[in-house]
């Protein structure tokens, strides 16, 4: 499972700003930063709640949170993280609980990479 | 972009007046995205709601010309909002354009959307330009929407059905479809030895009010199929042994085969083309499901659950179309 997932995201970027631009239309640098900032603030809370839900094995909550994170991340160009959430949601919907644990190991590292990419664009103070 | 009282959107479509568009999504980022997409259009004003309750408040107090909603929002969910609008239970016009904007496009949700005549089902993510074009298009191109009573009847019927419990494990399921009708229940005595056992369970399917086909044999076969599917469901939720599930599967598939056989014979006798055309369409859907059921791995709980849900949806579709209506003098006619 984890190999299949690694293969799947290998070609993807952590944060694809061109993709973000393609969804939002032409954004100025300021607007782009604002979108990233808002994504980070909201997605961080969802991410933390998702980790908690997985630890508690709260299936419905895992489905709900991964579903929301998937779309948020996709529209922001966070391809890898969005794909991970999509896999988690799909797995939960088909009751494959065993694979969830394996996949959830990717959650924190991918989030940290995403955080770094956003930080690189916004500057360290912006994420404080 | 403004010409007299007419307004043009970015897509070049003429808007003859100003429009209020309600956008609903529980994720702030997505709600803002929708808000931005609509507000970019000339003479369109977006109103945001982050949950179903706020959306309802807006629908009750504002004049709304279009709804764009996610499905998975805090109660009432997106589908519930759509149903309430279409069935005319809100002050908002029941025939406004409705766009579903969701991260998933599961067949069941799409089918529900179709039943309530949503204008489009858009899957996230989508570009702001593409979304803007869709909004402009549906604001000026009317779609035929049935009278509110049509959706109200569907909605009422759904409300009468027992609700499915939340998903916690693969076995906690329910897919009840139609109301029980005690009078009719007494009329039909299926030749099953486990009737008593089935009565103690909440039925998966049962024969609803005023849904007679008017053709006795067909009526009987459909009832028998409902009963067998109900038994299959009960055995499945009780987590019975595989051999019991296999027996129920054979029984349900046998019922479908027999229904096909009866239809073939009835067609020769009853030459009501309109009726058979509609019924054949339903039957072909059922036969596809039967083929899947026949070859399904019974250990695969999710798959079986999915099939049961599809069969229940088939059933609700079949009975929600009054193929035959009872007429006052006691006889019956076949027409829609």
Question: What can you see in these coordinates?
Answer:
Chain A: It holds the Pfam family Hpt. Chain A: Residues 28-121 form the HPt domain. Chain A: Keywords: Phosphoprotein, Two-component regulatory system. Chain A: This is Hpt domain-containing protein. The complex is a heterodimer of chains A (128) and B (336). Chain A has 7 helices and no strands. Chain A has helices at 2-9, 17-24, 29-55, 59-76, 79-93, 97-104, 107-122. Chain A has a single domain (2-121), classed as Four Helix Bundle (Hemerythrin (Met), subunit A) (Up-down Bundle). Chain A has 128 residues and is mainly α. Chain B is of the alpha/beta class and 336 residues long. Chain B folds into 2 domains: 2-152, Rossmann fold, CATH 3.40.50.2300; 164-334, no CATH class. Helices cover 51% and strands 11% of the residues of chain B. Chain B is built from 12 helices and 10 strands. In chain B, strands 5-4-6-7-8 form a 5-stranded parallel sheet. In chain B, strands 1-2-3 form a 3-stranded antiparallel sheet. Chain B has a two-stranded antiparallel ribbon with strand order 9-10. In chain B, helix 1 (28-39) links the parallel strand 4 and strand 5. In chain B, helix 9 (216-237) packs antiparallel against helix 10 and helix 11 packs antiparallel against helix 12 (301-320). Chain B is elongated, with a radius of gyration of 23 Å. Classes of the chains: A mainly alpha (128), B alpha/beta (336). The interface between A and B is medium-sized, with 23 and 24 residues.
Task: Give the topology.
The complex is a heterodimer of chains A (about 130) and B (about 325).
Chain A: H1 2-9, H2 17-24, H3 29-55, H4 59-76, H5 79-93, H6 97-104, H7 107-122
Chain B: E1 2-3, E2 6-8, E3 14-15, E4 19-24, H1 28-39, E5 44-49, H2 52-61, E6 66-69, H3 78-86, E7 98-102, H4 107-115, E8 120-123, H5 128-140, H6 148-160, H7 182-187, H8 195-200, H9 216-237, H10 242-269, H11 273-295, H12 301-320, E9 324-326, E10 332-334
Helix pairs in contact in B: 1-5, 9-10, 10-11, 11-12
